[in-house]
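#struct-pred

JT: dropping the chains for the assembly here, can someone run the whole complex?
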Amino acid sequence: MYNILVCDDEVDIVSALKIYLESEGYSVYSAFDGFQAIEIMEKEDIHLILLDIMMPRCDGITAMAKIRQKNNVPVILLTAKGEDTDKVLGLNVGADDYVTKPFNPIELLARVRSQLRRYFSLGAAVPSEDASVLAVGAIVLDDRFKIVTVDGETVSLTPTEFEILKLLMQSPGEVFSLKRIYQSVWNEPVIGNEGTVAVHIRHLREKIEINPAIPRYLKVVWAHGYKIEVEKEL
Amino acid sequence: MKSLKQNTAFKIFMWILSFILLAVFSVSVIAAAFMLDQDFYTKTEREIQFKAEKLIASEINSKISGLYETYKYDNSESEIEKISDTFKDEKNWRFYITLSDGEVASGNYKGEKATEYTFRNVFYKTEYWETGETLETEAYNVTIYVLEEKIQNDRFVICQNLISFAYYMRYAVYIVILVSFLTFIALVAFLISSAGYKKGKQTVQKGICERVPFDIFTLFLGITAFLNLVILDICFTINDTLAFFVIPFLIFFDYIHISLWLKSMSVHIKLGTIFKEMICVRAVKYVCRSITSLLKNSRGVAKTLIITILPCLILLFFILIMVDHYLRVEFILIWAACTLVFVSVALWHNYKLSILCKATEKMAKGELSHAVPDSSFYGELKYIGENLNKINEGLSIALNDKMKSERFKTELITNVSHDLKTPLTSIINYVDLLNKLELDDETAQEYIEILLRQSARLKKLTDDLIEASKASTGNIKIELSRCDIGVLLSQTVGEFSEQIEKSELIPIVSLPQQPVFAVVDGRRLYRVFENLMSNICKYSQPNTRVYLDVTQKNNNVVIRFRNISRDMLGISGEELTERFVRGDSSRNTEGSGLGLSIAKSLTELQNGEFTIRVDGDLFDVTIIFAEAEEEKK
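RK: done, full complex below.
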């Protein structure tokens, strides 16, 4: 079973998280500031950390930097700020994911699950040399069997969605315009109907992202197109 | 070589050497010219010796004849003895006087072995010239015998020695000229190339001489040359010998001066500052700059010129008509001077006025940091300037206060929102946990659902509140880029496809044939579209059409969102963009009442125009951006 460290200065939030996580079968360790978190990290075998940023005595960023010197377990930041700069800072210092307060418990649990699966089940998996298998972050697309897995879980996609995802994954980071996606997936000339692409992308995002409004992989580049990218390169 | 170039003592030594070489060169050239003139290269040494002796002998002859004629005139006796007596100390030559008729022949020549030089003289007897008698002339010959065996060291001997030395050296002198000239050139080249190098410094350094602007230095040189001429003139008037002594000193000082001038020039050329640092170049540049800045910063220069020059021209016309022609030139000169002063003063005044204009312009634009520089004003302009500065100061203070309070407000909102979020998180979580307990009590379950809904609304409200406060105070980083507005609208509609379906709306999207671009922040503009679309989905009458257009009009990109409201809108478009104002007065539905306010603020932050028009049930939002120029590739 996985051990999860929850660190927040608000006791109520820690206990709520404890209830949620324990109901999912995780064992939970609680800490109420950065120093306690570091202490527990040294003593216990922790598999994942939920870390608040704004805490008295020792804030989350400092604590994470300390923990990262020795340990590589996934860290999900809890932040009340929600500012882009805070997110970028957190991810740059070594966080794997972040959740803005007030968070949706279901989303949080999904992210925890995703991080654990990625770290412990897929972490050791060597990416296939096979050209028909594409992988970006936790998304793996197998072209032969037409299977897409996210965090190791199979996602069922329509053929159009599959083709769009394949096109984007072939060139991670590149921005594809609606026209280009339409032309390559539908194999038809564009007659002002590329708007359908946006609908398909939306559906695709709902299937492969935990929170479609804040996508981790399938990003919208507003007024230009879409791209697939790993969160850390935000 | 480098260390030699940096060695000052060595350079001074080289300089002295160069001066000596120049002297040798000059003397040699003069000597060569003299020898060429005196046929040293065509005649034998003996011939030249004779020529020189003859020259000296002729001088002696003139002395003797002078004496002879004096005695003759006085009719004194035994003149030959007296002449012999006069020259008794000069033993290298003898003389003999023969009258033309052979009457008297006498002298101190005693038949020694000698070279003889005979001169014919004519003696004019003018004894009775007052009475009108004709002049009597008497011719006589003086023969000078220069003894071959020189007894004493006189000028014959010196001359002889000099000539034989010169004759001996007559070809060698060319070599001396050549060698001294080449060495001199080499030394000068070395000195020029090493000018400016100093011990311990890698680059060319300026010395004292180079601090003097080069044109001033050149002027000094000219003055020195003129002074030289004056000094020489004075010396020659007083005494030739004095001049002979003064000339070397003059040459020496001039040589120092020229050397320093050359050094200065070479250092300036090496540093590339020869023209830049000239006083005259700087002066011209300064004048040009002043005039251009005067003209550039002045407005209405042409107007001022016309207003000032026109009356002057009329005056000139009258002068030409009314003034007699012999006074005309003076009048025109006075007129020209007056006009010049008049026009300059007018232009200057105009310039000062323009500065004031510019200052007011900047103030009008809101650049309050730009105060009027009132130091150089005078009279009324100074008064205006001072008053403007006072207005400026007052405005700045007021604006600062406003900014401060605005910032304080924003900070307050943000902080309060952050503080709200923490308890909100707990509320949401525990309500959710309560919900999971699946209580038997139906009423309790119903209450929990209300709590769930309302806590979700509270969350949305907090988020919107933060965003609205940031957007309205411009506290948001806007990253402008060239964006295809049509694509953005397509993407937005795609994002809302499900909600549109849920609200049973029929979207009619019309985009221009060619893509239209505007310089906006795509992410922020999506927030605008998102807010509008979510409003449309929330408040539209089901089964109606929603018109979403992007058009291009007068170099503008016009985006329109039109829908039919479900409820009656008893409110104007302007009021709707106020914070916390909502179309439905009951305020029962979800939403914070901030969506439109945020949309408007965000649009304005991207230099766009956001207007809402309410026409009956038609809700019409128009967003206008300036069209982006063609992308240059």
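JT: nice. Residues 379-437 of chain B form the longest helix (59 residues). The mean pLDDT of chain B is 83.
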